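Predict structure. Chain length: 383.
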Amino acid sequence: MQDPVGLEPIAYVSNKSEIPLPTPGPISLAKGMRIAWEKAHLEKIGLFTASLFLFILAITLMKEGARSLAPLVQVTFDISSASNSLGFGWLFAYVIMSGSPVAAAALTFFDAGVVDRLGAFAMITGSRLGASFIVLFIGFVYVLRGRDRATSLGMGLLSLTVTGSTYLAGLIIGACILEAGVLDHVQLHSGLLLNSVMDLIFGPVLNALAGFLPNWALFLLGLGTALLSFNLFDRCLPQMTIKESQVGRMSRLVYRPWVMFGLGAAITLISMSVSVSLSILVPLSARGFIRRENVIPYIMGANITTFIDTLLAAVLLNNPPAFTIVFVEMFSITLVSITVLSTIYRRYERAILGWVTWVTASNLNLALFMATIFVVPIILLLV
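Prediction complete.
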């Protein structure tokens, strides 16, 4: 409280006496550093470090165990063509509800000679098709909680449809690029220094595990470790709080396709998880903050930068052709997305929204769609 003249801060106590309040002094350097560290959330930094360590360990384990799985995968699942690989990656992502570990597994299969370049490319594409199912699954959870079916399932259906249409077009373009060898020169070596550091850190762990586990079990252990690493990474991401005022300020931006395209790419690049960046669309849509037609470019952008972790896996494998495969995947999807946005976006938008509306119009239509997305990868795997 201030005195009538406003010259000095004072406090009034019960005996009516006036006691000047202490003037706040400058924050000490130590206290400032402590506050900065608290804001940085040391726990999240620790989770990020642990997730990175586990991811590198997972790639090391899967690389070692993939060679032992080669006969089992080739004979049991008969992965002898690009269509088999596409179906395998698609179903594999369904089973573990994640695409990134499957994409990493595809690279380790390629490194072990289980699949060729085109097979690895198709398997990575399948992993992304299967990963889109998690958004639809979250939509089903919202329906069970009493939310509107069309709104809750709409984002999942959009994610699956946009991903399917762009990735299948990208599969054709990317396959032609790989066969022609146009981008074969785009390779990145991990380098001797990185390899020696990795061997020094993870070599003893690998040798210890290989001492009492069969080689095929190392691959499964690596796959589980990859799932754990992505789970930890999701937990270290900051929690988003959405306020009406914040949405209001961004309302004009969501109507600009190129802005949403960049936003989807940026959020996925930061989170390194397309499941995270796309899953947040379900609650946003259910609460009326965003409409379905506004997120189509967002999904396109997210589907490009989601390959960042797969690029890292290719570098860790120290297999330059594996890096080329992932780069061609990113290039082909980017080419398809930019072409759609630049030329036929409004027609594409109407077609996608019309399809989603038809699927959610009745239980029969929804059942047919669900049956299709499970039957198609099975057929691809068996043919």
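Summary: Residues 41-382 form one domain.
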